[in-house]
């Protein structure tokens, strides 16, 4: 092991000399405390190292040990239900070893080396295998089946394989051939290198989140990318929590990057108690948490995003649908800016490094729907959803702009909506999605041919409402025609009875696509029926006073197993308007 010497310490940045045998992105151990660091710049024999722990008390002359390998994480059974820091150290194991406050230089294995897992082989001796082939399974918990794959780079004929109980670093199979080797339950992968796939595919299926404003108006496809920009207090974390809880992904990887510790505590407290609507078990049984909170070392914050996406890629390679939440990429960009400043690099826009946009692009490009490696043509998807926290809510700043150039879905959060207690606080006039046409085709075939038609009608009404409200401010509501006043009433119903959701009501916190269609169809049917009444000489205030309107308002609280009640309300609405016309036709 080559030993260098520290020349300079500047916060998390350490400069060492005598490192001529090291390479950029190699992992090193700094000082006698063996603090973990990563080389981010080489100049002759001098290496600039970002250290993932507190460097207080370290000075020039202390040793730096090179490991010769890049920052890698361990992938295998034990990831699910785990909580790790930004460089995949398990926080539970660290707490058991050091208590609530971590001591510097403490190391524990990334995955538990003592626990035995029941491995069931699905291949036999003599079978030919290639990189990515599934050779067996481990039932990690009641919900999740962990598929053991041939590590990337290995291929050949299986010489030996056996079912039984193994730890993650015991050999379960041997592969013969030019590219042969041992297969363990665990494999390693460098976090800054994307895991390869056979072919990237076009995402067409929506990631169903159960949030009406997202699924109906601004859907994201499985394998797509989305950004949630918004000012402080507008509900970015709330939206991401809802997506993590209810999105129809097989696996959720939640990265708390530079956010407040109490937000990760909320996740830790809530997720084990929440019932997964897909399985009936705890939501935590298909979740991996990576926490690098605002009080943790800034350098590890920069690594946490890569750790999270590498874990997500690993599960995608098994053929699963994975949703990764990054909260928030702005804090990650701030870590880049701090390290760039300490390296004395030429600053770009607002002090961010010139390579900010390319780093953000590299991250989001690792999402996608793909044919993964292996001989069975399986597909896996990785959906990346990143929160962005622009200072003062100004999305013209560099991180927001660089993100919006890459992602295809923009859920713009509005502080005024969150202040008015309208959640999710996604502004329907600012947001957009580029997956709409493909998703509309899917929803038309699977839910109703009217799904896309109703969505377009509702969006047109909401746009018209914005214009009409400007007129109302100037001349008052009474100056509007009955038809325009009706548009305002229907738009208000769309906003309050459809777009707004209550996370504390079990019937409303998650809404299936079928229920979303029926509620919106009911609201738009009210507009159709009201127009019919007006054409037949009925006064608008009589239509608005119908008792059935109360039922339309409460339609979102109807449970999923009683959706036929929504159709009954629609029938009741038509009957009520017909009766009104028959009784009030004399107004014509």
Describe this structure in words.
The protein is of the alpha+beta class. The chain has 4 domains: 3-70, Elongation Factor Tu (Ef-tu), domain 3 (Beta Barrel); 115-190, OB fold (Dihydrolipoamide Acetyltransferase, E2P) (Beta Barrel); 199-433, Rossmann fold, CATH 3.40.50; 451-587, Bovine Mitochondrial F1-ATPase, ATP Synthase Beta Chain, Chain D, domain3. The chain is 35% helix and 23% strand. It contains 17 helices and 26 strands. The strands form 5 sheets. Strands 8, 18, 19, 20, 21, 22, 23, 24, 25 and 26 form a 10-stranded mixed beta sheet that branches. A 6-stranded antiparallel β-barrel has the order 1-2-5-4-3-6. A 4-stranded antiparallel beta sheet has the order 12-11-9-14, with no helix packed on it. A hairpin with a 5-residue loop joins strand 11 (134-139) and strand 12. Helix 7 packs across helix 8, helix 11 (451-475) crosses helix 12 (482-499) and helix 11 crosses helix 14 (513-535). The chain is globular and about 95 Å long.
């Amino acid at each position: 092991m080559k030993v260098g010497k520290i020349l300079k310490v500047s916060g998390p940045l350490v400069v060492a000399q005598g490192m001529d045998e090291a390479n950029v992105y190699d992992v090193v151990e700094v000082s006698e405390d063996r603090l973990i660091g990563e080389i981010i710049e080489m100049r002759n024999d001098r290496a600039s190292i970002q250290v993932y722990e507190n460097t207080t008390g370290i000075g020039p002359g202390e040793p730096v040990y090179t490991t010769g390998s890049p920052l890698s994480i361990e992938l295998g059974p034990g990831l699910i239900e785990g909580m790790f820091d930004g460089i995949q150290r398990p926080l539970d194991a660290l707490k058991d070893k050091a208590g609530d406050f971590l001591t510097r230089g403490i190391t524990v294995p990334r995955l538990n080396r003592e626990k035995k897992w029941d491995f069931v082989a699905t291949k036999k001796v003599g079978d030919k295998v290639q990189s990515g082939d599934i050779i067996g399974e481990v039932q990690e918990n009641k919900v999740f089946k962990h598929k053991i794959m041939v590590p990337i780079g290995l291929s050949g004929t299986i010489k030996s394989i056996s079912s039984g109980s193994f730890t993650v670093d015991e050999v379960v199979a041997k592969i013969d051939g030019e590219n042969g080797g041992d297969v363990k339950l665990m494999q390693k992968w460098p976090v800054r290198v994307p895991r390869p796939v056979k072919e990237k595919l076009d995402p067409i299926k929506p990631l169903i989140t159960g949030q009406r404003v997202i699924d109906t108006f601004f859907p994201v496809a499985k394998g797509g990318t989305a950004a949630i920009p918004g000012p402080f207090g507008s509900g970015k974390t709330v939206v991401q929590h809802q997506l993590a809880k209810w999105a129809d992904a097989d696996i959720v990887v939640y990265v708390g990057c530079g956010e407040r510790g109490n937000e990760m505590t909320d996740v830790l407290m809530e997720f084990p108690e929440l019932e997964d609507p897909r399985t009936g078990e705890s939501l935590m049984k298909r979740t991996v948490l990576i926490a690098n909170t605002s009080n943790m070392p800034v350098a590890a914050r920069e690594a946490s995003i890569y750790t999270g996406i590498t874990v997500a890629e690993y599960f995608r390679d098994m053929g699963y649908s994975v949703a990764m939440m990054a909260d928030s990429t702005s804090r990650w960009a701030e870590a880049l800016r701090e390290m760039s400043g300490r390296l004395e690099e030429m600053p770009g826009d607002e002090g961010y490094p010139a390579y900010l946009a390319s780093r953000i692009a590299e991250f989001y490009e690792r999402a996608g729907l793909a044919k993964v490696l292996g001989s069975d043509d399986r597909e896996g998807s990785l959906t990346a959803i990143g929160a962005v926290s622009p200072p003062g809510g100004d999305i013209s700043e560099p991180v927001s702009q660089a993100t919006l150039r890459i992602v295809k879905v923009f859920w713009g959060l509005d502080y005024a909506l969150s202040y008015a207690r309208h959640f999710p606080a996604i502004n329907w006039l600012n947001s957009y999605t580029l997956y709409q046409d493909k998703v509309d085709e899917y929803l038309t075939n699977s839910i109703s041919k009217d799904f896309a038609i109703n969505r377009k009608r509702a969006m047109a009404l909401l746009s018209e409402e914005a214009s009409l409200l400007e007129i109302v401010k100037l001349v008052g509501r009474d100056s509007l025609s009955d038809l325009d006043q009706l548009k305002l009433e229907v738009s208000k119903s769309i906003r309050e009875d459809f777009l707004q959701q209550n996370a504390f009501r079990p019937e409303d916190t998650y809404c299936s696509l079928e229920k979303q269609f029926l509620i919106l169809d009911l609201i738009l049917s009210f507009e159709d029926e009201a127009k019919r009444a007006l054409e037949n000489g009925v006064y608008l205030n009589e239509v608005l006073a119908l008792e059935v309107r109360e039922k339309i308002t409460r339609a979102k609280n109807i449970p999923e197993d009683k959706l036929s009640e929504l159709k009954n309300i629609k029938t009741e609405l038509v009957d009520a308007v017909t009766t009104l016309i028959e009784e009030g036709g004399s107004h014509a």
